[in-house]
Amino acid sequence: MKRVSTAWVVLGIxxxxxxxxxxxxxxxxxxxxxxxxxxxxxxxxxTEQSRDGLLGDYGSVTGVVGVLVVLGLAGGVTYAxxxxxxxEQS
Amino acid sequence: MHVPDGxxxxxTSAVTGVVAVAAVGxxxxxxxxxxxxxTAPMAGLxxxxxxxxxxxxxxxxxxxSGHLMGGALAAxxxxxxxxxLCVSVVLLVQSLLFADGGITxxxxxxxxxxxxxxxxxxxxxxxxxxxxxxxxxxxxVEAGIAAFVSVPVxxxxxxxxxxxxxxxxxxxDTLMTAMFGVHTLIGIGEGxxxxxxxxxxxxxxxxxxxxxxxxxxxxxxxIKKAEVAA
Lengths: 90, 230
Fold this sequence. Notes:
The structure holds two protein chains of two kinds.
Chain A: H1 6-22, H2 34-42, H3 60-89
Helix pairs in contact in A: 1-3
Chain B: H1 10-34, H2 39-54, E1 58-59, E2 65-66, H3 71-78, H4 80-98, H5 106-131, H6 139-165, H7 172-204, H8 213-229
Helix pairs in contact in B: 1-4, 1-5, 2-3, 2-4, 3-4, 3-5, 3-6, 3-7, 4-5, 5-6, 6-7
InterPro entries (chain B): CbiM/NikMN (IPR002751)
Organism (chain B): Nocardioides agri
Pfam family, one (chain B): CbiM
């Protein structure tokens, strides 16, 4: 089998992440998640102090923005760590 | 399982905050040794992928949903230390941009979803690699089982934190039963998603999966030995 290049794997994962956040997320279950449901059932949901995030709610556009922000931040941190490690090694 | 502000009291949140800062600090140092030509380009992508998949809540019974946590997935793909960094970045962005998880609860959420699931996921994965036959085809299965186990364990860590600093007076045994039960179901989804994602990358480029490295080294050894014999 022909070896798939790293660039294609990188592009593939990025494309999948963007499609999941931008399109597939529309079909996500809107029921409360495990902890939220347990909090409602056990009677401590009222202790939540809710607030607004900078981008509001998850949606196709904000989801894609989120993916890009996470990619930039996590990619940036690991890139910086790698550069520093390489410099220490040389 | 994103904990909002208000569920845990200030002292408990402060302690989890300190633990989270310490864990991320150690991870920043240790991750350097994990980041090489192959894992470095993967790290940001793994974080972005986990963020995207966390948006996809799936149903787990009547009126309840769950989503991927991603700790085991990150650990297997890029290594445990880098994995802690990846999931922590996801949690930071979710909290700031989407108010998904509190600000004072960020430390708690890092302890639960970045540290607990990565540590449990990685340990179970490595244990299974030792116990099961050394085959590449088993790596996604081992990753899936590790991911499955990591979710109810993280739920139990939450119950432990709630026992110490929960702001409402509720019976802990029913809280534990409820949390463990629903998160065991969510764990099945976690295991399936993790197994599929690891399987997809193992199929095209096993060398990009950090948890598959020991098998590749072994494989090369076998081939070289055969060449010498010939």
